[in-house]
Amino acid sequence: MPSSPSRSPQAALDLLRQRFGDRLETGLPIRTQHAHSLTWVTPEPPDAVLFAETEADITTSVEICRGHRLPIIPFGAGTSLEGQVNAPRGGLSIDLSRMNRILAVNHGDLDVVVETGVTRKQLNEHLRDLGLFFPVDPGAEHATLGGMASTRASGTMAVRYGTMRENVLSLRAVMADGSIVTTSRRSRKSSAGYDLTRLLVGAEGTLGIITELTLRVYGIPETVLAAVCPFKTLEGACNTVIQSIQLGLGLARMELIDELQIKGFNLHSGTSFAEQPTLFLEFHGTPAATAEQIVTFRAIAESEGALGFEQAERPEDRNRLWKARHDAYWSAKALRPGADLFATDVSVPISRLADCILETRRDQEASGIVAPLVGHVGDGNFHLVPLFDLKDATEVAKIKAFTHRLVERALAMGGTSTGEHGIGQGKMGYMAAEHGTGLRVMRAIKQALDPEGLLNPGKILPPA
Amino acid sequence: MPSSPSRSPQAALDLLRQRFGDRLETGLPIRTQHAHSLTWVTPEPPDAVLFAETEADITTSVEICRGHRLPIIPFGAGTSLEGQVNAPRGGLSIDLSRMNRILAVNHGDLDVVVETGVTRKQLNEHLRDLGLFFPVDPGAEHATLGGMASTRASGTMAVRYGTMRENVLSLRAVMADGSIVTTSRRSRKSSAGYDLTRLLVGAEGTLGIITELTLRVYGIPETVLAAVCPFKTLEGACNTVIQSIQLGLGLARMELIDELQIKGFNLHSGTSFAEQPTLFLEFHGTPAATAEQIVTFRAIAESEGALGFEQAERPEDRNRLWKARHDAYWSAKALRPGADLFATDVSVPISRLADCILETRRDQEASGIVAPLVGHVGDGNFHLVPLFDLKDATEVAKIKAFTHRLVERALAMGGTSTGEHGIGQGKMGYMAAEHGTGLRVMRAIKQALDPEGLLNPGKILPPA
User: Fold this and answer.
1) Hey, are the CB atoms on B108 and A152 less than 8 Å from each other?
2) Widest CA span in chain B
3) Which residues of chain A, if any, have pLDDT below 50?
């Protein structure tokens, strides 16, 4: 259909302006901020940003945008890493951060109902005095729960508590036709029809705009113990993780940090960790259960060349440890001041973890690439943070080739092109290799639920 | 399109006969057996039954049936409870029970790859000597894993280990267009695109025919302890379960059996359980962890009016206990010899469990209905097994009205019309009430993936 004055992006923006006034922002700084991306994907700002305050704001926007074929890009906190919030075809970025009310805490059912813009930090501060916590922790503490659901986020505690896939019990979403869907009842279990919750979790806003979430929460464990365990070799650290998983030890966190990244921590945070491949650990449970876990874990670690095991029981010591871990991205920068960097991730079956990491290490050495490694290795998931100069085309090409080999290596080992960062724009090129005919099924679903391609176009599904 | 000799069910059957010879059965006994249903849904036999041996048999059948508009009904072991294997529009039942090879046990990754017709009993016998087990246990030990995935089965251990939703890591399926889709890689975690695994789990064969599954398995715990805990009141038993869940005790099994069903066990199996509302329990873990769990559990139970706590540690004692539980359906019959019966289930948020069960009990008493109760109450999920005379129209009407009230009660409490039996034909009437606009989304997905309505028509989605 040809665009006409009455059916054009500009007409949609005019209508949105009439309806929302100053809550519609078209200034370049705000638009640029909403295309900000911690990746080398080029920022592509939207035409406008709407600060939504209610679900009705969203249904109204969808109505207007659909009538005028203006794309919609849902925006949480902009912490996604693969260009998920970019606007390659222009459009309206709907900023959901003001929809930040905690609607219910059902203590008896261990669930909460929140608006999409609530951050995990905000939720956990609210829950702490109730003796509860929400475990999914992708690092960015201001990430919104809606954004985390949309990218199927996971992070440090997924090895014990699962990812957003397991912890979103139900959600509400505005669909491309403007209808509002609640994907499931609040009961824990159901076998009533297709699993729409899991379909929208990880869909990166391409199938619907999440407005509300029912999330599983947990009682704060009686004992929480953190520990730092440096190893002689990267291989020994990997093997310790593999054996702990195979024994079903149930650690709450099991993070691998290579010697390079440890050096970054020390430079950035003034810590004095031994500059060795290291596991950061956390044990949750009763005093007796955690003591048992630690005994078994230490026996494995010692047989794999652990150089020590330092416990941190006081909350402030634990927090220092996990703050260092969460600052990995920024402390990597300390290794080459002024460098550009980005985080990439893959995941493999745990039995191939050591193979994949060691082959990648050899590749790095052969190609002269500096890329510290951190990883949620209990899930077979690890990140590399290559340091390079974005203005140096040769370096950029070298890094691109390296990350391409990393993905191919993971796929060849039965792994995935992305364990937790999502596809966005950055990994679209691997969808066919990863999913084969499954990609056709995904396209058919997208076509059925969003025939005009209104919702976050140019993400997840590569051009046919 | 009008049917013609070259495009008709009979032409399809002729082609199937040519292709498969004696593996295509059209005799009434086999056809009737494939429409067998442990429910009051009227059996509706298919036109023919194909005993598939390979995935290629299935793609060939889909090709032939699609060309001639002959419906396809996937069949595992026929243990589903809501008419899932019926053929309301005739068609070809594809019996998958001969596709029963265990293809791989990846001990290091704690996963297995199996053909769709492998039964859970067969898998667990295979795994036992490897120190592994597969926990999803819907009771019917000859249920096939493909059927269990299709109905999103759960059962006694879901409270600790999750349902088929959590334990199917990936699957292969033949889609309505004849293509073969693998839904995910073997890595535990991925954020690469739409979650096709969870879409097909619970789809009851209406979106694709599952041919192969990658399943999560677990190490057999060091200690497995079962126990029987009778209570003064049904309310006390419910409250004990609720508090155990809220404390995150992590029991592996927590089954409520009411005094009527206990009486059935005693009549059927010659056991001598106290005829009281009773919890059957199982504790998994290390010796120290299970001992801790038991101390905490008993303290809760005693404060809620427990009358005893009898442990069964020897495998033979444990097996006797769980055999009694699994025979619930048959032992219910002992309460009224000659009676007809069927099992129905709902699930509610755990905080509403006692309310829902006690209101239902009052309803039973007021309407003079005999219906023993068993339940996976840790999930808020319980079953009733009404006893009645199928030839007595008044009794049938009374039972129908009672089960209708049960579903409405569960829905009003934030629950679901079915916790684990699925929708099939029996619960289709509640899809609109349960899902609202979500039902439209499900219809759109079905239309996109199976536009001709070839796969298991007349199930899950009620007529528009």
Assistant:
1) no
2) 73
3) 1-5
